[in-house]
Amino acid sequence: MSKDQDKNIVNERDNGAQTANEHDEQAALTDTETPTQSDVADQAQSPEVEEEQRKSELEEQKEKYLRLYSEFENFRRRTAKEKMELTRTANEEMASAMLPVLDDFERAIKTFEKENPQGDSTKEGMLLIFSKFKSALERKGVKVMQIEAGSEFDAEYQEAITQIPAPDDSLKGKVVDVVEKGYTLGDKVIRFAKVVIGA
Fold it and tell me: What are the tens digits of pLDDT across the range 117-151?
């Protein structure tokens, strides 16, 4: 055999190998392009499957929406409650801060009345200012506790600062004297009445 014949044989083998490779590639393409029976069945069910998937996604979205709506409503209610609580607390702090001023005003008026029993314009002015101040606090919901000597001791509204021998048997365990008035703001006690009770 000559060199030319050897080259021809090698070329034919190479060409044969290329042709075989091309044939394999073509077959692979044909396999992927040609749908099988299961692919055809999947495609036939595809609209039904897609509809189920869409329904499932829609349900998920509805659930998410309801959860978000519920969370928002809870947030709104909680915020409104916190705002009311903050307003009430602010009123309570303001009223508590004003009570000592009110007490001092009352003491000043009593002292002034003892020293100046005759009425004059200064006394009338002080009484007018005191009255306005007290009514302003009442408009905000501050109320004086009505506690008198001889009334029952109530630990929910009163603080016993001391206990003295009762001047009368009927005053045992009862209020003998009110040292400092108590106040409420709405239903909440903002200052307990300081009282002396009989033993």
Answer: 776 777 788 888 999 999 998 888 899 999 888 88
Q: Is 2.60.120.10 the CATH number for 141-199?
A: no
Specify whether the CB–CB gap between 153 and 195 falls below 8 A: yes
Please tell me the number of Cα atoms within 13 Å of 48 on its side-chain side. 5
| pLDDT tens digits for range 75-118 | 999 989 988 887 777 778 888 888 998 898 888 888 888 887 77
Q: Of 119, 79, 88, 115, which is closest to residue 190 (Cα–Cα)? A: 88
SS (H, E, C) 92-113: HHHHHHHHHHHHHHHHHHHHHH
